Amino acid sequence: MPTNLNRADFVLIDHLQATWVRAGRENLDPYLSVGREKRVFPLICQFDPSEGLYHGWLSRWRRRLWDQRGFRTSVDLMQLEDVRRALARFHDLKDRLPVERRDIGQYRTVDDLRSIIPTRIAETHRRRERESLKAEAYRQSEFLYRDGKWIVVRLKGFAAARFWGLGTKWCTTSAEHIYLSYAGKGEIVVFLTPHGKYQLATQSRMFRNERDDPIDLRIFRGAPPAFMRLVSSNWADDGTRRCPVAET
């Protein structure tokens, strides 16, 4: 059977039914309670910044106020303006949130709306940056050896230097011109092991651990033979100087 009720009408009817039930539980006159909410709830809905998309959320918000402050609690304009700002911010930014975080129903309070949005957007942005860096790094990497956590990579670009150098103090990860100053003189090879990362600049014979300290080849004891052959073929003896300071 067709109906002329729109979304807002359905929400209002549902809200008034909840009002009737709540009044009965609290031994209050349901007619007076419903009459009050007929006046109050449409006022609250005027603070929906969309075309009625958040009436349902506002109804649930209003009912939570009953639990927190009592069934006959009132609302003031400052409180409603605070709600409107939080909803408007969510409405403007929700398309930038992960799909699973776009449902307004999972946010119970105004504080939830305030706190979750920038955090989720920042997390999404960081994740996309990491994924983009990894994809570019793999395009700029030549894998010489891969066996579980034993990996040898020849760097072919700055994105690869940044990615494989994450968590280290290698200066080749800090700026592209520093990386290029090393790469222009010879190959840069990264050795990944179960106990850490090590980078070798073949021309300068600088073989460094994650702290950018010189290493002792005995650190590779127990490495697969093919891994050790790559270490030996790329390294002669360690230099003593650290990464130079970029000229200004």
Give a written overview of the molecule.
- This protein has 248 residues and is α+β, with helices and mostly antiparallel strands.
- It has two domains: 7-126, no CATH class; 140-234, no CATH class.
- The chain is 49% helix and 11% strand.
- It has eight helices and five strands.
- It has helices at 7-25, 30-45, 55-69, 77-93, 110-139, 158-164, 176-183, 225-234; strands at 141-147, 150-155, 188-193, 196-201, 206-208.
- A five-stranded antiparallel beta sheet has the order 1-2-3-4-5, with helices on both faces.
- Strand 4 and strand 5 (206-208) form a beta hairpin.
- The chain starts with 6 loop residues before the first helix and ends in a 14-residue tail after the last helix.
Strand content is: 5-15%
Quick one: biggest sheet?
5 strands, antiparallel
Number of separate structural domains:
2
* Proportion in helices: 40-55%
The topology string of helices and strands comes to HHHHHEEHHEEEH
Content-based structural category: alpha+beta
Distance between the termini: 79 Å
Strand order of the largest sheet: 1-2-3-4-5
Number of strands: 5
Attribute tags:
49% helix, 2 domains, alpha+beta, 248 residues, 11% strand, disordered C terminus, five-stranded antiparallel β-sheet
Q: How are the SSEs ordered, and which strands pair?
A:
Blueprint: H1 7-25, H2 30-45, H3 55-69, H4 77-93, H5 110-139, E1 141-147, E2 150-155, H6 158-164, H7 176-183, E3 188-193, E4 196-201, E5 206-208, H8 225-234
Antiparallel strand pairs: 1-2, 2-3, 3-4, 4-5
